[in-house]
Amino acid sequence: MFSKESNPELFLKGEVFLKYGKLGDPHKRLVYFDENHDNLIWCKENKSNIRKIPTSEIHEVKLGVSSSKVLLKNKVNEGLDKVVFSVHSNGRTLDLQADSEEVRNRWVVHLDAVIREKSEHALYRLSRLLGTSE
Description:
134 residues, 7-stranded antiparallel β-sheet, 7 strands
């Protein structure tokens, strides 16, 4: 499904990020994908309070401290620009701060691959349904 460089097992295990929200202070959350990459999941490190976004609803990943209204509202320090990113989906964003630029970039590249893969599958299914594929 994904390139070997993206190491999908890492994304099933997940990594801890600082999550920004509309209310309250940023807090640590474990972020990972389910087995089929159908959902991007985040929760407390003890796996309680599980939330998710279906990957089929993710339409964009933006980089930097001005990549969402939530980050702007939280007045995230510009010095964190290289470790912050936002996952944009239907009606919400997931706003995260990685421990390093390397971690952020690894997740952004993988998220992009997931979005493209899911989009290609959706277009293929639609073309089959409409009878336009060969």
